Amino acid sequence: MYSAKEVAKLCECSISKAYNIIRGLNQKMIKNGIPKESIIAGKISKKFFHETMKI
After folding, report:
1. From CA 52, how far away is CA 49, in angstroms rounded?
2. Spatial CA neighbour of 51 closest among 31, 36, 29, 34
C-alpha cells in the first residue's frame, strides 16, 4: 500500500493533490466491484496504482 506521502513523491505533486489522486483511485476501485470495507482511506494498493497510472 502507498500512503499519500509516497504518492506525492512518485507523482511529483503536493500531499494535498496526492490525497485527491488516492480518493479518485479508491472511487474507481469501488466502481470496479472492490468492497468498500476493504479500502483504507488515505492509502492505495501499489498494484492498482501502477496499473492505473502507468508508472
Report:
1. 5
2. 29
Q: Read off the C-alpha cell for 36.
A: 468498500
Count, residues in the chain: 55
Q: What is the pLDDT along the chain (55 residues), one digit of tens a residue?
A: 999 999 999 999 999 999 999 999 999 999 999 999 999 999 999 999 999 999 8
Does the pTM surpass 0.70? The reply is yes
What residue type is assigned to position 5 of the chain?
K
Q: b/e string for 14-42 if b means 16 or more Cβ within 10 A?
A: eeeebbebbeebbeebeeeeeeeeebeee
Q: Is 39 helix (H, G, I), strand (E, B) or coil?
A: coil
